[in-house]
Design a protein that fits this description.
By secondary structure, this protein is an all-beta fold. The N and C termini lie far apart (about 95 Å).
């Protein structure tokens, strides 16, 4: 159906937000899924208007297809790297040259279909149009800085009563992408004659909606991601430390195994159970080998290139922006070891992507246990208790405890002896002798 955005007769229909699709779905063979901004777990709607970007068309908008538009970064779609895109005025893009400058299939069809373009994103595929007097156009713009740039394509078809504006955002590095819908006049029954989805070939596609009224709404988003992660390896270094020692550990998550979406972001939450009482303090986090800006916070960051860490119960929890970890995450932290010797202290870990369809998974143990050895700091000083002057009656005694401590104030085992002596004119008797042996204890 031809949906002209000028001089339309509008019939109002009342609807509710509940008419929208479910908030998650996806079942294509490659491993894509979608999440909307409807209810939790949900993606965010974060609109940046780019009408100050580059306009693609001139004059009235009606079935044009752009020539190749160069991408500012390589983008992987269905497992293949893409460096340019072709954009239709009818609300779709293709990474494959359609070989025409006029849309050969302006009316939408359901996906998959041989009538649809291969390597296609149908952001809001409908037979759209707009006049030059309405300043209707399609715009492109690159936002952000490498390696987390965003390439935005925005369709803007204004009308006094029947406007529509929507975007697709391609994310550098993670290869995620998002469809966003800004102002859509509800009188147009948005989605009733449109197709929204993605297609690799005429036999492989993932459709969000087709000819479904109110499948999108004002200020609405659909994020496309990988569906699940099958496994992750975890290891810690070093694997031993001395009693009472402050050790810098490096914990590595790698070999993140997807269902096939090798180039896509996969994980965004990592939990490491710490076997010792002292809380760890994080000094550095690397995401995909890049050093992240870090903050001690229980909230997940929204900007890419950032990570937060927090202590939840006995676990150290690391969070990134949505599915930012593609192949690895490495966290460095300091932790105080206890005063007693022990072996096999396991730093068990789990991983998760908050939006994907898989549950929290235990990582694969490639060596996450730490031994606490007997070597310790040397004795730095002795502490007497009580520490205040004592008064006693002749013939009675005063009990003292002497503790050997290291430079950090920790009690340490001691094989030496201490010799008591009295000074001044007073007399003192030490029992059982003036030499007291610690005998590999920290106190006497």
């Amino acid at each position: 159906m031809k949906n002209r955005f000028l001089n339309l007769f509008i019939v109002l229909f009342l609807t509710s937000f509940s008419s929208l699709q479910a908030n998650q779905g996806g079942n294509d063979n490659f491993g894509y899924m979608w999440t909307t901004s409807l209810v939790s777990p949900k993606t965010d709607f974060n609109w940046t208007d780019i009408k100050d970007g580059s306009a693609l068309f001139f004059g009235a908008i009606d079935d044009q297809v752009s020539t190749a538009v160069a991408l500012p970064f390589t983008f992987n779609f269905y497992g293949s790297p893409k460096n340019q895109v072709y954009i239709s005025a009818n609300g779709w893009i293709s990474f494959k040259d359609p070989g025409v400058t006029t849309d050969p299939q302006p009316d939408n069809v359901t996906l998959p279909s041989a009538s649809a373009q291969d390597s296609m994103m149908a952001v809001y595929w409908d037979n759209l149009s707009g006049t030059s007097s309405q300043a209707a156009n399609v715009y492109v713009k690159t936002l952000g800085t490498a390696p987390y740039r965003r390439f935005v394509i925005q369709w803007d078809l204004p009308n006094i009563t029947n406007s529509i504006e929507f975007q697709v955002i391609l994310y550098e590095t993670t290869n995620l992408f998002k469809f966003q819908y800004g102002k859509i006049d509800l009188a147009t029954d948005p989605g009733a004659s449109a197709t929204i989805g993605i297609q690799a070939t005429s036999t492989e596609a993932l459709q969000y909606a087709a000819n479904t009224g109110f499948s999108v709404d004002n200020y609405f988003a659909i994020l496309w991601t990988g569906k699940r992660v099958n496994g992750t390896d975890a290891s810690i270094a070093p694997t031993s430390g001395n009693v009472n020692e402050t050790v810098k550990f490096t914990y590595t998550f790698d070999n993140i195994n997807p269902a096939g979406t090798d180039q896509m972001g996969k994980l965004d939450r990592f939990a490491i159970a710490t076997p010792f009482v002292a809380d760890p303090v994080v000094s550095q986090i690397k995401i995909n080998s890049g050093i992240a800006a870090i903050q001690n916070s229980s909230s997940a960051p929204t900007d890419r290139g950032y990570a937060t860490w927090s202590i939840v119960g006995d676990s150290l929890v690391i969070q990134t922006a949505t599915m930012e970890a593609i192949d690895s995450l490495v966290v460095s932290f300091y932790q105080d070891l206890p005063a007693s010797v022990s072996t096999g202290n396991a730093y068990v870990s789990s991983v998760d992507a908050v939006l994907d369809s898989s549950s929290i998974q235990l990582a694969n143990n490639l060596g996450w246990s730490v031994d606490v050895t007997g070597a310790s700091e040397p004795v730095d000083y002795y502490e007497f208790s009580p520490t205040t002057d004592q008064v006693t009656t002749a013939g009675t005694g005063v009990a003292y405890t002497v503790t050997a401590r290291d430079r950090f104030g920790n009690a340490v085992t001691n094989s030496d002896s201490i010799i008591f002596s009295a000074s001044g004119s007073s007399s003192a008797t030490f029992s059982p002798s003036s030499r007291l042996a610690f005998n590999n204890s920290s106190t006497v």
